[in-house]
Amino acid sequence: MPNRAWMPVDVDPYSGLILRATHLRDRSPGLQARIWIRFLHTGGAFGFWGKVIASLGCFAALVLVYTGFSLSYRRFFNQHR
Are 49 and 5 within 8 A, CB to CB? Predict the structure, then answer.
């Protein structure tokens, strides 16, 4: 999990005291997996290097979109007779 671990808390709105904090280990295995997958998806699971890998994946997806549009443009609009 990232340095800033995700922990939901219930806070008393009048006094500001923390009433309950739920740790990751207290959650069900399914919810633990879901939380991990969320942080893997956003690149936050492994700190800086996780963000670098997620950014490279995003850039690769953009390249695929560009090549798809480029190939379809050549196919449909550059027809040589």
Answer: no
